[in-house]
Amino acid sequence: MTFPRPHRDDVLAAVAGLLGGLLLYALGLHSQGPDHAVLPTPVTLVPLVVTAFLELLRRTMPRTALLVGTVAVIADQLTRGSIATVLMFADLVYAAVVYGTPASARRIPVTTGMITIAVTIGFLAWFRDPAALLIGVITGLVSFFPAATGAIVRNHREAAIAARLRAEQTALLAEMDRTQAIAAERARMARELHDMVANHLSAIAIHSTAAISLDDATTTKQALTVIRENSVEGLAEMRRLIGLLRDSSGDTEPAAAPTLAGLDALVAQARTNGAASGLTFTLDDARDGDGRLPAPVELAAYRIVQESLTNALKHAESGEVRVEVSGGAGGEVRVRVTSPFGRRPGPRAPGSGAGLVGMRERVALLDGSFEAGPAAGPPGGPEKIWCVRAALPVVNDKEPPA
Asked: What does the pLDDT look like over 88-121, one tens digit per residue?
């Protein structure tokens, strides 16, 4: 049988106990008189050596060490006895509670307490002398007191471990929250950047292609005019976004986020950008009342219309692009953008494919609904249309909660 390697402190305790016991034996100092000894005096060294050896196992095999140590300390009482043996046994009781299993840590204090009470009552009834109480006290000091001390130490250690685990879990959750917040903020920035810049860059790409491919001075001048207008507006949008991202943009007031009040200008700009592609743009604003909606709803609806117009400039066949906005306070804002749908050889301007993803994310953040795809065209119109639908719930802060 191979024994686990003992801890360095256990080796020191075993050596100190054994040397101390040998010194007491050499000096003739024993815990009992010769009248109480049943076995010869040299036998006193056997429990001493056994208990010293068990000190090497106090951490690695605490239960086995306690059981064998109990036999050794009982055998010690049949000899002249050694204080070193008794003290090392008390340490084995303490170690069995601190390093043993949770079940042992619960049972040993109770067991040693009952043994202390039984020994006290038994010797008191046997000797019929109050001095017999000292035997119970000594028994308690050797067994119950080390067990109780071990239970207190173990409870403190487990509490410290639990507190450390809670702190680590809290730190882990905080790091996860921070990572998620950074990812969400990056996604929001990506949506804003895409929606603000894609519209202007698409118009620039379309009109620059027209200016290059058509050998007409008037057409080229018109295209360059549109390119310049979109470049200036794109730069203004970029400055606004950069100002929002910085701690201090240098402006006295932050730039206002776009709202549905700017749909007329947005559609007018799209009308100018799409004229060369044979596209016409119509706005039907049928919102209820003139009251302002919550800022997130206004921004999301505006960006959905903006991105839908950008996609129409890139992909739509010649015809009418229709923007419809309805609903309002107390219900939901409904946005519907339709454009002629056909098989083009390719888009008028390159795209990243993030437009529909961004619109879906904006709607999902507001717990709304979103659909985008081909549909049958209206009577007298194109056979197929591309339809974007979004419904954004509106929460009226003035109404009392249910």
From this structure: 999 999 999 999 999 999 999 999 999 999 989 9
Q: What length does the chain have? A: 402
Domain range list for the chain: 8-168, 259-402
Interacting residues of 14 by C-beta distance below 8 A, sequence separation 6+: 6, 52, 53, 55, 56
Fold of 259-402: Heat Shock Protein 90 (3.30.565)
Distance CA 125, CA 395 (A): 83
Write down the residue that tokens 């939901």 correspond to: 332
Q: Please, is 185 exposed, middle or buried when counting C-beta atoms within 10 Å of its C-beta (0-12, 13-18, 19+)?
A: exposed
Q: Which residues contact 259 (CB under 8 A, 6 or more apart)?
A: 292, 295, 298, 299, 302
Q: Is 219 exposed, middle or buried (0-12, 13-18, 19+ CB in 10 A)?
A: middle
Q: Does pLDDT of 154 surpass 90?
A: yes
Mean pLDDT, residues 220-228: 74
User: Residue 195 CA to chain centroid, in angstroms?
Assistant: 31
Residue 198 is predicted with a pLDDT of: 67
Phi/psi of residue 210, nearest 5 degrees: -65, -40
Which pLDDT band holds residue 398 (cuts at 50, 70, 90)? very low
